[in-house]
Amino acid sequence: MEQTKVLTQRIRDDRAPVWIDDYINEGGYEALNKALSDYGPTEVGPLIKEAGLRGRGGAGFPTGVKWSFMPRFEDRPDERPKHVYLVVNADEMEPGTFKDRMIMEGDPHQLIEGMIIAAYAIGADMAYVFIRGEYVECQKNLQRAIDEAHAKGYLGDDILGSGFNLKIYLHMSAGRYICGEESALLSALEGRRAVPRHKPPFPAASGLFGQPTTVNNVETICNVPHIVKNGVEWYKSLGHNKDGGTKIFGASGHVAKPGLAEFGLGVKLGDVLEHFGGIRNGRKLKGLLPGGGSTPFLTPEHLDTPMDYDGVGAAGSRLGTATMIVFDDQTPIVGVLKNLEHFYAQESCGWCTPCRDGLPWVEKMLIGLEEGRGQPGDIELLDLHVKLLGPGKTFCAHAPGAMGPLEAGLKYYRDELSALIPDDATTLSLTQAANANPL
Amino acid sequence: MAHITIDGREYDVDDTENLLAVALSKGFDLPYFCWHPELHSVGACRQCAVKSYRNDEDEKGMVVMACMTPCSDGGRFEIDDEEAAEMRAQVIEWLMTNHPHDCPVCEEGGECHLQDMTLMTGHTQRRYRGAKRTHTNQDLGPFINHEMNRCIACYRCVRYYRDYADGDDLRALGSHNNVYFGRERDGAFDNEFSGNLVEVCPTGVFTDKTLGAHYNRKWDMQNAPGICTHCSLGCNTSPGSRQGVLKRIQNRFHGEINHYFLCDRGRFGAGFVNRDDRPRQPLVRNADGVLEPRDMDAMRATMEEVLAATTGMIGVGSPRASLEDNYALRNLVGADFFTTGMSAHDQAASLAGKAALEAHAERIATLREVESCDAVLVLGEDVTQTAPRVALSLRQARRNRHLELAAQNKIPKWHARAVRDIGQYNNSPIFSATTQATRLDDIVIEPQRLRPDGIAELGFAIAHALDNTAPAVKQLDDDTQALVDSIAATLKGAKKPLIVAGTSLGDPAIVHAANNAMKALAAANAEARLFVTFAEANSLGLAMMDAPDIEQAFTAIENGTADTLVVMQNCLYERAPKARVDAVVKKAKNVIVMDHSLNRTVGEAATHVLPAGSFAEADGTLVNNEGRAQRFFQVFIPDAPMQEGWRWAADLADVAGRDPEWAGMDDIIDAIVADYPALAGIKDAAPSQSFRKFGMRFPRSPHRYAARTALYANVNVRERRPTVDADSPLSYSMEGYYGEGQPPSTLAFAWSPGWDSNQAAITRFQDEVGGHLKGGDPGTRLITPGTDTAFAPADVTRVDGWQAVPMYHIFGSESQSARAEAIAERMPEPVFRVNAEGAKTLGITPGNDLSLTIDGETHAFPLDVDPSLPDQTIAVPVGMHGVCGVRLPVGVEPK
Fold first, then answer.
1. Which keywords are on file for this protein (chain A) (predicted)?
2. pLDDT in tens, B206-250
3. Confidence of residue B787 (pLDDT cuts 50, 70, 90)
């Protein structure tokens, strides 16, 4: 199936970064010029809303709607807070996800241009890119791109004579998965522990340093220049169904040709898998996590699922980051779940009890099952955790996310998991268990 | 107001509150950990799960955390819900996966919130089979013990320490199920309010090390309602004892003073009560200068001789002793021969403070009220060192701006992290002028460092800027005038401005300046408040006793009108320079001292010593800095012949043939009130000794008080009859009436069914959680409005050249607590401080000794550079290391 290259159109085959001259030659910063000259600051947001752009970080919240929550100070400049912030979430740490990295390494100006337009649209004067610590190449390329943009007058004071000012700063994360949660990201950016914040208040009301803030994912922001440049109708036409635009899909795991590819939203799961060469070594698909480690399993029966927000939702999972982790039919599911839960247990920030103390227990039960030390009742205990680590019961979405694949695993592979409990296993007393089970 | 339903019962509640607070106020048993009435909600522990229903049709409902749920109108909630109860029990099971279950050896056992909550949720059976994670503990100094394995990661400690007390050296470290609450390395906590961690921690991670040193369970303690004697604020305490040993000081909730928190001096400073060197027998100094014990009969004979032969007695009272003790002394020596025991400058400043309070009787801020003020001017006081608890209140005052910003953004006041996040560094304005840098400077706008006269002048100038009929001071330079104008404008623009001043610099002009500023402010704003701090626990009470200062006592001896000094719980060497005291003592034929500690006066000057009880061994009334008379009660009966100071004074009067016939506290209080109508209110500070509820006294011990019978089993298997308290309506046992309707001033400890921890059990005695005590917060305000006084003249005493100013330290400057082992460990090394220029002028390399003569008394301490000090100003460590009787501020000539 042919790719629809929009966000990846300038990415070189050899991955050499597109610097500013090439970027401009290939149509870059035209959208910025257009936004600043043809649209007032409050007119870009509605355009994005109309285009139906949804957050590419995984939650799929409509971007234009998010921007519309930002307080406006055009009519009351006296009340304008010291700063209004745009924060780009480049802390790409979802297991199996590496799409933002490709953009930031290969086409950093696309992100910069998108940020300038987005900041203009929400009235921000300061922007941060909160970037994953390990993304050293991205950091280098982005910093150079920022400097180049500054030198050309795309950043700084009075951008292109419009009177609009913006500064962009890079912030290298010290490295925790939870920093990808937007409110934890803000805490980290303030120099505090990366603990999520309760909503409300939402960042638009009280965000970074207590000021109005919008947090967007890298890929989301990169859509903005294309919408401004080519219009809403064009953008909507890129998708196969209701959701407009393209999405960078990825595949890792047991596929023949792992990597990234860009398709219009709504492409069939089977077609995406086929693009990545299908299951390697001639094996069959056992299941896949369609959008990163925290999205519930899809199985061979879901190959016709349209890969857009509603389509994957209807199949019982989430589009997430659309970078799938694929497992062949010889993969023991308990190992998959154990690895995932190990990751989520380790990455819990430790703030709320269910997540902090529940996830390690889940992990230990899965280790026990894998090592043949399961006991009657373990499956039911896992069910209980799925229930009590669900949305609303924990402080943020981390633990419910961790329960996504576990819940689907218990649903689709229950017999396989139950069979891991030895037939002669009995419930041990705590003392017996402690002696027999030195985890 | 909101109309809500909880478990089918309907309530009209405050819609600005969260559901957990409301449920607790309404008496529901809803378990919680991370929430605290002063720290509010963060939703971390997930323990207070309840079921919330959207509307009447909603049958499914959803589980929400009560602490994060606003009480909006029409809300329908179920605590008694299967799914919510399952969640609550499961949270305990999760917490217990790593908890060591070491209750039998844990100091928290018996007053552990975690034990209570575990029981409340019904979790009993452990299903987790894995190993527990363990931690290494830290040595946190002499106050607090650290046992991290018990931690359930509720984050209360860091939220209290960092977000409430503004401390920095306790952090949450690590992550996931390996969060560690500790310091970067071993060492005592830097913050002066660290001891509250002991009560804030819901389990045994942070425990009281001074209790641990001679541990027993809460249920085995005999307590009494206490008043802290280590500064003038009158924080309410609950001292706990067993078998005549004072075990610990715990917070006793008072809705207008300390509410949930104490300072570390108050909490850990009571160790002096247990010292071995205390006088416990009557003592007489022999020809060799050694104090010898006497039995009571011999002592009576001795005192008969002494009193028969005396040509005149002069009494030295004490601003740290109760009104009763002082009054009994006054009765003994005669009204004309009683002195307050305060130094002349302390008395002058205290009287100025009293006058300021009288001028603004309607505007005296309680400690609690300080927290609600949105602009503050502190004149002269380094409150963290002189009246520590108010520093913690001022730290809350600065957060009013956070609450304002939160309200503008519709963030409820209880949403602690959101309030903090939006507040950031936007504080309510606090201005302060002190002689040197203080521990409050981090929240002060442009802290001013001036000599005492400069501080007074600044205050007068602000008063003048607020009201130009207030006397002006000399021409100020432009910068100062701009600052004065900005402070005045800020105070004027505030909803509830506050002026804080005190007597610690010994300069009445500072109090006069505060008085003027207050008068100027109050004319335009009825909400303006005044807070005056005094030197000691009963300074204001003594100022109200209308007696001359200690000078008169010294003069009486010096000029021979008296030959016998009678001292009540005071140390002469703290009130005047050593040379003067030595001369007076030498000239006096007798120095009779009634005291509880081996201070310098007892050790070096006394000819006769009568062992008086400390606060723990006596009842009495103290008047705090707001003029509130409060009663403290005897915690335990000391071994005879030790007895209350007032009983010794009464016995001496009897020896002199004038037995006042006071059978108990009621009699002496009646006598005081008869002599001092202004003190009439002390009668109502607590119920009379004959007061009973349903015919019952009020217990000093919890009803589970164990081993009362076994304690003396080796002597007599039968139970000994508890001693009957002649002075108060309290019993020396667990018998009596405890609970609803008990006068709050008689509440010796906090307990209620299912709630054993101090900070949680008190809820059942409050009108609403965190509010006031049912029946009214204890104590009676004595200050009555004086006549409307004119502005004070803007007179200051200027010293040319070098000036010595006092430098206080929370640990050491107060003489009683300095004798407590734990406090002594934290006492700083003595230094003189000057600024860099000063060190250069003196030609002394910092670290080398400066020898300084003040008031004829010479001390040599290392010189330390403090760049904040004004020029030619030497900060002198007072109250410790022998520097106690000097008169400061004073001009000096360093050589």
1. 4Fe-4S, Flavoprotein, FMN, Iron, Iron-sulfur, Metal-binding, NAD, Oxidoreductase, Quinone, Translocase
2. 999 999 999 999 999 999 999 999 999 999 999 999 989 999 999
3. confident
- Across the interface, of B44, B97, B129, the residue whose CB is closest to A351 is B44
B180: nearest CA partner in chain A: A350
Confidence check: pLDDT of A209 > 80 = yes
- Residue B845 in contact with partner chain A when CB distance is under 8 A: no
The answer to whether B130 contacts A346, with C-beta atoms less than 8 Å apart, is no
Contact (CB, 8 A) for B271 and B823? yes
pLDDT for position B881: 77
Would you say B258 and B247 are in contact if contact means Cβ atoms under 8 Å apart? no
Give the span between the Cα atoms of A248 and A272, in whole angstroms. Answer: 11
Residue A201 with chain B: CB contacts under 8 Å: 409-411, 415, 418, 421-422
Written as one string, the DSSP assignment of B788-821 is -PPPPP-------S-EEEEE--TTTSSHHHHTSH
Q: What is the pLDDT of residues B306-338, one digit of tens each?
A: 999 999 999 999 999 999 999 999 999 999 999
Which residues are within 8 A (CB) of A120 and not within 5 positions of it... i.e. 6 or more apart? A35, A36, A41, A44, A164, A166
In the numeric block, the tokens 């022998």 are attached to: B882
The alpha-carbon gap from B423 to the nearest alpha carbon of chain A, in Å, equals 7
Contact criterion met (CB < 8 Å) for B130 and A392: no
Structure confidence at residue B786 (pLDDT) = 77
Residue B712 has pLDDT above 70, yes or no: no
C-alpha angle A40/A42/A44, rounded to 5°?
Answer: 80
What's the CA gap between B48 and B64, in Å, rounded? 8
Q: How far apart are CA A123 and CA A166, in angstroms?
A: 10
| pLDDT confidence of residue B416 | 97
Q: How confident is the model at residue B885 (pLDDT cuts 50, 70, 90)?
A: confident
Model confidence at B437: pLDDT above 60: yes
Relative to beta strand B236-242, strand B222-223 is: antiparallel
Greatest CA separation for chain A: 79
Q: Using CB atoms and an 8 Å cut-off, which of residues 464-503 of chain B contact chain A?
A: none
- Residues belonging to chain A with any Cβ–Cβ distance to chain B shorter than 8 Å: 176, 193, 197-198, 200-201, 205-206, 209-210, 345-354, 356-361, 364, 368, 375, 377, 381, 384, 388, 392-395, 428, 430, 433-434, 437-439
Q: What is the ipTM of this complex?
A: 0.95
Q: How many CB pairs under 8 A join A and B?
A: 127
Contact B409 A201 (CB under 8 A): yes
The reply to whether residue A345 touches residue B405, judged by beta carbons under 8 angstroms, is no
Domains identified in chain A and CATH numbers: 20-237 (3.40.50.11540), 239-328 (3.10.20.600), 333-436 (1.20.1440.230)
Mean pLDDT of B696-707: 84
The confidence score (pLDDT) of residue B370 equals: 98
> What is the token pair recorded at B383?
């409150």
Q: In chain B, positions 175-204, which contact chain A (CB-CB < 8 Å)? A: 175-179
Nearest to B94 among A176, A354, A392 (CB): A354
Q: Taking CB atoms and an 8 Å limit, are A353 and B44 in contact across chains?
A: yes
Spatial CB neighbours of B458, under 8 Å, sequence gap ≥ 6: B379, B433, B448, B450, B480, B484, B513
* Residue B507 near residue B535 (C-beta atoms within 8 A): no
Record: contact B43-A200, CB cut-off 8 A: no
Cis bond upstream, residue B471 (ω within 30): no
Q: Which domains does chain B have, with CATH numbers?
A: 2-96 (3.10.20.740), 275-342+535-675 (3.40.50.740), 358-534 (3.40.228), 803-891 (2.40.40.20)
pLDDT of residue A77: 93
